[in-house]
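Incident log, structure service

09:12 report received: a user says their structure output differs between two submissions of the same chain.
09:20 pulled the input from the user's history:
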Amino acid sequence: MNLFDSFQQGHAYGAFLDKYGHGSHKQRWASVYDQVKVTADQSALLKSFVRKMNVLCLAGAWCGDCVNQCPIFQHFAELAPVIDLRFIDRDEHAPVQQALQVNGGNRVPVVVFFSEDGFEVARFGDRPLSTYRRMAASQIGPSCMTGIQVPGDNLLSLVTQDWLNEFERAQWILRLSGRLRTMHND
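09:34 re-ran on a clean worker, output below:
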């Protein structure tokens, strides 16, 4: 399966929500979007990206994990014009859903990063490390505390940083690619 073909069929953030989101879905996405805070350092990093990065997000407008993460991606795309972010619906694209399974299951969101000319660079999903740490602390019990996350941390800011790390990683892969450096003479 050529996932870049799916990227090219994807929708911009607003168009995705218009097509797949219902009233309550759109309200939830808008609420999280309004709560996302990108720090000055994070913004400067995103604005420093120079290599075009095509980003496909397999999502569901109904999905709580998507509600809590996809608005972050939109903030990144707004700050870094080199990020072309597109969304496709998990249920409407069953072959993509199957190709992007995580641990043998259908998960969302899953993000795939592509070079400007359609080569896959990286993929990441379904929840970042901060979310799993929080889940482990609450679901496994006190005998499994990681000690890494301070109680009271703002999970949304931690998740924003986790995802920024993935976007930055993909940008560095693109920026340091010998093939692309030759293409751009840099």
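09:41 both user submissions now match this output. Likely a transient worker issue. Closing.
09:42 reviewer note: The longest strand covers residues 53-59. The CA atoms of residues 28 and 64 lie 9 Å apart.
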